[in-house]
Structure formats: structure tokens, C-alpha cells
Amino acid sequence: xxxxxxxxxxxxxxxxxxxxxxxxxxxxxxxxxxxxxxxxxxxxxxxxxxxxxxxxxxxxxxxxxxxxxxxxxxxxxxxxxxxxxxxxxxxxxxxxxxxxxxxxxxxxxxxxxxxxxxxxxxxxxxxxxxxxxxxxxxxxxxxxxxxxxxxxxxxxxxxxxxxxxxxxxxxxxxxxxxxxxxxxxxxxxxxxxxxxxxxxxxxxxxxxxxxxxxxxxxxxxxxxxxxxxxxxxxxxxxxxxxxxxxxxxxxxxxxxxxxxxxxxxxxxxxxxxxxxxxxxxxxxxxxxxxxxxxxxxxxxxxxxxxxxxxxxxxxxxxxxxxxxxxxxxxxxxxxxxxxxxxxxxxxxxxxxxxxxxxxxxxxxxxxxxxxxxxxxxxxxxxxxxxxxxxxxxxxxxxxxxxxxxxxxxxxx
Length: 412
Hints:
2% of the residues lie in helices and 37% in strands. The chain is mainly β. The strands form seven sheets. The protein has an eight-stranded antiparallel sheet with strand order 16-20-12-9-14-7-6-30. It has a seven-stranded antiparallel sheet with strand order 5-26-25-29-22-21-15. It starts with a strand and ends in a 19-residue tail after the last helix.
């Protein structure tokens, strides 16, 4: 995100000495940058060596063997059933995520959490985490961001951070983990990275970290240490797959006295997205908000709908020739899916090669509507998605037959 910010103390010139004003101690400069020094970056100034570590051990990620969507069919997953009752109270937002769908470009997961996560960094790609409900704080080496219902949170690759749920309700997170960087849609950006006039949001809508955030703010001593060594959970590439490592470091990573640049976590509320509408139905690219390699993220928000006198406001039937479509239903009443069993916390998968569209009756019923009160986050991928453990566990088993009213052997 080429939008400059700074926090804390930094020297007037980059790559020059920066010292503690009282002790004269030299701070350690770290460049955190993308694409081999050729894209967005930030400079962070640490009290301690950011490369220091004292141990490395395996973080055993949950066992999962994703299954191809074969034979081909659409699916409906009820994500709230992944964390029934009060089980969220014993879950944290990182280690207890359940993967629902995934391919070589992106993994989609879900968690309902009540415990703070450990320190964590994703070394495989950026994360876009949507807050379905609840409240919390994202703490990172850049500072802290308060988050709540409807927030997207973009966390750049390799950012050391942790999630802290607040309040007495679960922090429900829908996590899109990329194997690339995640940016605003390119057509919304100038050649220098500014959000343009036709973009549905702008830089004023983005909330950056409040910082710096130092270990003593977390209860450490004045030098930025905590009692004992500190573990950082890391996802990274292992032989073409995703693996996990716990790195033990001798001082707390939250020791950055200042930073500046164009790479950092930020939050954006879906309520600040200004929908693009038209006289006739607008295609999904009109609803795009972010993109990564091999996928895009769109959102459908409450909006005035098509106002041509003969318009049909719900989507026309369409074939996903080049993509799989994943819809996460997180607010209002999604008109096109009424009668399918889909509700709050549902995810639908409409795979490439399958023609899909409104449920029976919705096409005609929408005529004359002037406003849709609906909220959904959509991920379109350009490679087929496999069914992961979390999705298989909460498949409703009936959605594929919801357009015809019957399945194999007359099943309803």
C-alpha cells in the first residue's frame, strides 16, 4: 500500500545512525520490503537485534488433506458450527483457525476466539482478515489497531503480530491467507499508488497502527524485555507446502522505537465502502475491494439497486468459466439466496464449470426492489479450490440440489 506513514522516532536520513537520546545506544535498522528491494517497504528501528534467536522447533499445524471438488458440485458450509456453544472461550485466533477451502494461491479459514493468540507471523503471504463480529486489538511491531465488526485487517507478510479479543463475546474472524501480497484493486490506483476518484474508498478510510508499541507497555521491564525467552509462531514454505516453526527469541519483538514507510498493517471498515450502482445489474468487479495473485476480494454491501424501469435487481445466471466463487454471508438478508438454507455465518462455493444464480423465486421476487440490505464478502479464485477439513466438517449436504428441489434418488 503506497501510502506513507511514520510513528515514533526516526533519523532525518535513512540508513544513518539513530541513537537513544539518553544512553547514546545505537538502534538497529530493519528494512521490511517486498519484491527484493523493488516495491513497498518500511524501515523499523529496534532496540535489540531483530535477527537474534535462541531456538527453533516444529509447530505442528493441524493435519489436513484437502480433497478436490470431484465430482463437481456447489457447497454450503455453516461456519458457526465449527465452534459450537462456549468452545470459542478456549480458542485463539491463530492456532485454532480451521481451514475451509484452499488452493496454491490462497487459503480461507475461520475462527471464533476468546483467548489472545501467541506472537505470530505469516511468512508465505499477506493476510486479509475480516471481522465478522466481536472486538479486539491487533498488536504488531508497528503498533496497535483496534478492530471490530465489519473491519477488514490487512497484515503484510512476515509482520510479527498477535490478536487480543476484547469483551465477553467471541471474536469471529474470516481469514484469507494469500501466497502473495494483497493490495487494493489496481484499477483504483494511480501509477504512483494513490486511490483514484472513482475508487469506492480512499486513504482517509484506512486506519493505520497507533505506535510505537513497546514491550514495557505489555508489562515488560524498561529495557523492552520480558521475563524469559519469547516464542514466535511462523508459517512458512516447506518443500512446496505450508509448514510451521516456533522461533524462540531472547527479547520481545515489540521493541521498535520508530518506523516509517509504505508497508504496515491497516484496517478498513466495510461500512466505509461506497457501492457502485447502475441502472441495470452491475457485475462482481464493480464490488471489488482487494486483490492478490490468483484471486480477488469483493464485498456486497447495503445499497440502492438497479433503477432501470425493467431491471431485475438480483444477479443474472452466470457460469464461472475461469474461477471459483466463495461467498461469506455476514449481515442482512442476501436476497438471491433466500430459501436455500443460507444464513449468517454461511459460506457458499460455486465452482468453475457450474452455472449458478438466484434461488427459485428470487428472480421474479426482486423486480421492483429499490434497496438490498445485505452484507457478504466474496473471494473469487482463478484456480479450483479444494475442500479442506473445516469445510468438510460443516457441509450442509443439500445445497447442490436447492435449485431443482431434489437430488440423487429424489432426495430433497
